[in-house]
Here is the input.
Amino acid sequence: MSQLFHLPQAVRVNSTGTPYASAEANFYLTGTTTRTDSYTDSARAVAHANPVVADSAGQFAPIYLDPAITYRVIITEASAGATLDDTDPYGTPLTSSDILVVDAGGYYAGTEVETVLADIGANYPKNATTETISAAWTWSAAIHMADNIIERPEIKDFSLTHNPITSTSNAITADCSTGNSFYHLLTENTTFTLSNPSPTGSLCQIIIRIKQDGAGGAHTVTWPASVTWGGGSKPVMSVGNDAIDKFTLTTDDAGTLWFGEFAQAYAAA
Here is the structure.
């Protein structure tokens, strides 16, 4: 993008009130007498002669400047006559680092205007305290509520993320941040860890479906000490080949205490 040049002052006139015919606009690098180009077009494809000469009425053709250059502009009478104006610097270009954003609340990434605008475009698609949606919206990406409330919804045709999880060295983790439903093929005796439940005051529920492998392993599961079971009895895994057990665990204190329910010996599938 080019900067359109305008005279530092209105068109100068002589003592008789007549504009200086054929006045000259000389363009230099700031602080020097080293000439630098101005242009006839905004694309800066064609350079003006330097100086640029005004017409008989003292008017200049359009002059475009390079925004990456800080200019010195000297306006003289015709044929390098007396100096009428000497402006230095002229049109000092601004960069994004020159324009700072005061962000007392610390809402945005960075303090330069370009960085802040990029952050707004990426993370703040709509900024309003209230919004009434009167028609269906289709979302093409995830909506991250960050543990905030959705009030009075009627939910239709929903599903839960269902994650297969595997054990390594007799240990396995059900990470609630990845979903609320898990499937595990039991190939060894394993100890479960339950991680990243909802914060205290919110109910977190997970479902874990466990299937014995088909090789007659009769493997066992050890649950965390934080899990208490309905009826006071810990579950004993079904031992048949391909036997399936299902466990439902809930907590409302960020995992300090989990309440466990189980159903066992589903038909092999």
